[in-house]
Design brief:
The two termini are about 20 Å apart. It is elongated and about 60 Å long. α7 links the parallel β5 and β6. It folds into 2 domains: about 180 residues, Rossmann fold, CATH 3.40.50; about 180 residues, Glycogen Phosphorylase B (Rossmann fold, 3-Layer(aba) Sandwich). α9 crosses α13. It is about 45% helix and about 15% strand. The longest helix is centred in the middle third of the chain and has 21 residues. The chain is built from 15 helices and 12 strands.
């Protein structure tokens, strides 16, 4: 029996990589070895600060300041059949690994989708582009989340699409949401009209979207449905104290399990105005059969029929009207919940994601041999 190893940059990939045995040969097995994202980049902060400033201005400083990978990681990289780098920042400050079967998972193309608002962010974005370009130059494949990202990506060599899946499908499965009729999602015994907003609020686009939702959209919703509740869930959402003073807004903070909140929601919202990739929060709502109202960027990269699979608008008045229409119409919620669930099953389920990972791993290893 052949045993292969797969080096990856994040533990979440391991939740799907265990399905890889047999993907390249009938008797092949894979062992996943990973190091924490940021494990390399977090060392020697002073060096990262120098590179973040001067490295953003001129690529020559990258070569002057590059360090070798730590010996333990370099050994893993050398011995692995497949090197799967999920975040380029993991290898900040190091020379690109020389590996014949390296896959670079590009999770963000922010510089192509929005204009960063500050000088510091522009430097950070420039730094991100340089690291990504260096890695992509030696990678067998670079992966993006959607066809839209592939069209705008400035990446050398071959680009493939690896669509996102829900971040924690096991949590949703544990509550049976994926196994029941989507029309049951969001219909708790109390039937409180809950609108769910999910996101880590230490990420700029999420906190900006939450403020837009709370300050511009939500007062229009409660003017018609004063019984409605906007429930904001996610890391650092407790920092949005000002929104908590708005009638009907409930700040939850970080939670270990999203499934109960999806179960209680009648509508999920994605009020994002900048960023790239695809919103996992939208896919989680789809998986649970919860209808979604999103901005254009909130729905970016997901192959949907606007008005059928979800509502899309960037106008706060129309956004509020779409939420109220869903809260008022159970049949419409059910229909959109079914449609979103079908999108998830067709393009973003764990099984579909796993098949994509298998194909990419198989081709990278075969070409690298």
């Amino acid at each position: 029996m052949t045993s292969r190893s797969c080096c990856a940059g994040r533990s979440t990939l391991g939740q799907t990589c265990w399905l890889l045995p047999g993907s390249s040969a009938p008797n092949a097995t894979f062992t996943l070895v990973y190091w924490p994202s940021g494990g390399v980049a977090e060392r020697r902060r002073w060096l990262r600060r120098i590179k973040g400033g001067f490295g953003a201005l001129h690529p020559i400083t990258d070569r002057l300041l590059q360090r070798r990978l730590p010996d333990s990681i370099e050994t893993l990289v050398t011995n692995a059949d497949l090197l799967w780098v999920v975040r380029p920042g993991v290898l900040t400050g190091t020379a690109p690994p020389d590996h014949p079967a390296m896959v670079l998972d590009v999770d963000d193309l922010i510089e192509d989708v929005h204009v960063t608002p500050s000088v510091v962010e522009r430097f950070a974005t420039r730094r991100h582009i340089l690291v990504r370009f260096n890695l992509a130059s030696t990678a067998r494949f670079s992966l993006v989340c959607s066809e839209q990202d592939r069209r705008i990506a400035r990446i050398p060599r071959e680009i493939r699409i690896l669509p996102n899946t829900a971040s924690s499908p096991g949590e949703v499965l544990a509550h049976g949401l994926l196994g029941q009729d989507p029309s049951l999602a969001g219909e708790s015994d109390t039937a409180t009209p809950v609108v769910l907003l999910v996101g880590s609020m230490n990420y700029g686009p999420n906190s900006e979207g939450a403020k837009w939702m709370g300050e511009l959209v939500w007062p229009l919703v409660t003017a018609v449905r004063p019984d409605a509740v906007l429930r904001i869930v996610g890391r650092h959402s407790e920092c949005l104290e000002s929104l908590g003073a708005i009638p009907g807004v409930e700040i939850v903070g970080a939670v270990d399990d999203m499934a109960p909140y999806l179960d209680e929601a009648m509508v999920s919202v994605a009020p994002i105005h900048r960023g790239s990739g695809t919103r996992v929060k939208v896919l989680e709502a789809f998986a649970a059969g919860v209808p979604v109202v999103a901005t254009t960027i909130g729905a970016y990269g997901i192959d949907v029929r606007v008005g059928t699979d979800l509502h899309v608008t960037d106008d706060p008045v129309e956004f509020a009207a779409a939420i109220v229409a869903l809260l008022d119409d159970e049949a419409a919620r059910t229909a959109m919940g079914h449609a979103g669930r079908a999108v998830y099953e067709r393009n973003h389920s764990a099984s579909v994601f796993t098949e994509h990972v298998r194909a990419i791993a198989r081709d990278a290893i075969a070409d690298g041999c």
